[in-house]
Amino acid sequence: MSGAQKYIQKDLHCSDTQIEILVGILNLYSLVGSAAAGRTSDWIGRRYTIVLAGAIFFLGAILMGFATNYAFLMVGRFVAGIGVGYALMIAPVYTTEISPASARGFLSSFPDFFINVGILLGYVSNYAFSKLPTHLGWRFMLGFGAIPSIFLALGVLGMPESPRWLVMQGRLGDAKNVLDKTSDNLEESKIQLTDIKEAAGIPKDNDDEIVQVVNQSHGEGIWKELFIHPTPTVRHILMVTAGLHFFQQGSGIDAVVLYSPRIFEKAGIIKDTPQLLATIGVGFVKTMFILMATFLIDRIGRRPLLLTSIAGMSVSLMLLGFALTIIDHSDHKITWAIALCIAAVLSYVACFSIGMGPVTWVYSSEIFPLRLRAQGCSMGVALNRMVSGAVGMTFISLYKAITIGGAFFFYACVALVGFVLFYTLFPETQSKNLEEVEQLFGTFFKWRSRQVELNRKKKVVQK
Questions:
Q1: Using the 8-state DSSP alphabet, how is residue 372 labeled?
Q2: Nearest alpha-carbon partner for 98 in 211, 218, 183
């Protein structure tokens, strides 16, 4: 949409306000999908929920590609938004639940990596289709998104179901078969199955292939446990999840990704082709640094990546705000300021992609207890999309009100607040089984002493 919006505005004669709404509204539409995805995945399984997400997004992309006016285009955005909401919730949950602890961060980062591969391909297709007549170019840009969703749906059908979902359905034999294939060794598979059975309320010594699971509510009572009567552990997890998703989007990533051609235009890059090429550069840097993060997240941990990332984002946003302010108050072209704008944008997306981007999805999908995971993650995605939609739908109005430099100074301040929260409240979850992670939470600012105590107990048990 970042490259298509300019051609949509020309072809459909839209105002800046209509474009602003069109760009950001998909994130609000995705609330429908993210709200339904938790219960859907508990009902039909993680795997078929991903297939459903791909089918919905396919339909949305086709509708956008054939849109004849602004209202038709908004209908396509609505359908695509539902698919996005489903996918953003279920992809990290499925990957987290099927991955061994030793590689969970690496594998759980893959959904975010491939999302950004898709964004990069979108930028490249924007450049390629910009050569077509205006009324065709933007339609191909948007309709092109239907192709990857086909491969997603077909690919997932060949993958195993989440062993944790299988246990929740009482299918212990199927869950054991999946764990034997996905664990590092058979001993780990056995330990994990025992832990999952305990989390699902099944006796440890029950080795039947299929068992009856009591209190299988598919969502009833879970929202009450999350929001009305949460334990200290759940309350801590909710604070962490809400903080991650709020600050991931509130620090302005969608303003940079969705409006990068406008930012480069404000920086002094006037022609369409250089703007689109610069945008491809943004997508390339973002994708490469997320790929780097997938190899680092299990080696050095979630916290170091997260804190380094948001600190770098703050500095980059301040530099971008400074450079744009200089350009805004100058009546002639300032080469060094233009170069600083480009460097700051690339630095910002690099810092975001090395930590804040992938860690948000990995961390929030691994900290909820099994019984709350689907609905808890769906709540996080809903907040993420609300903030993302607010940023996307207000950026043009914000920079017109406080200048474009002022807008990025504002996002820098938001990122600094996020750094303080992450430093004080976020325990490390590296190399821990999903059933162990829950024990790290509940002490809020005293999580470090809890982590030391748990490590000591684990060493005693191992001896």
A1: G
A2: 183
Query: Cα dist. 292→106, 113, 350, 428 in Å?
Result: 10, 10, 10, 19
3-state secondary structure of 35: helix
> Could you state, in chain order, the average pLDDT of each consecutive group of 10 residues for the chain (463 residues)?
77 83 82 82 88 91 89 90 86 83 75 77 78 82 84 86 87 88 83 79 79 62 76 89 93 86 79 76 87 86 92 95 89 86 92 91 83 80 87 88 92 95 87 74 77 70 57
List all residues 6 or more positions away from 123 whose beta carbon is below 8 Å from its beta carbon: 2, 3, 276, 279, 280, 282, 283
Region label for 208, one of left (φ > 0), alpha (ψ between -120 and 50) or beta (otherwise) = beta
Give me the residue label for tokens 């996905």: 182
> Is 0.90 topped by the overall pTM?
no
3-state secondary structure of 329: coil
Q: Considering only CA atoms, which of 140, 23, 266 is closest in space to residue 15?
A: 23
DSSP structural state of residue 153: H
Report the C-alpha gap between 287 and 273 in whole angstroms: 21
Structure tokens at 51: 């297939």
3-state secondary structure of 87: helix
Q: Residue 219 burial by CB count (10 A; 0-12/13-18/19+): exposed, middle or buried?
A: middle
Task: Scan for tokens 């409006």, then name that residue.
Answer: 259
| DSSP labels, 186-250 | HHHHHHHHHHHHHHTT--TT---SS-PPS---TTTTHHIIIIIS--HHHHHHHHHHHHHHHHHHH
d(CA 250, CA 363): 18
Determine contact, residues 387/245, Cβ cutoff 8 Å. yes
Q: Coil, helix or strand for 171? A: coil
DSSP 8-state symbol, 355:
I
- Give the model's pLDDT for residue 216: 53
The Cα 90–Cα 365 span in angstroms is 9
Q: Are 188 and 171 in contact (CB under 8 A)?
A: no
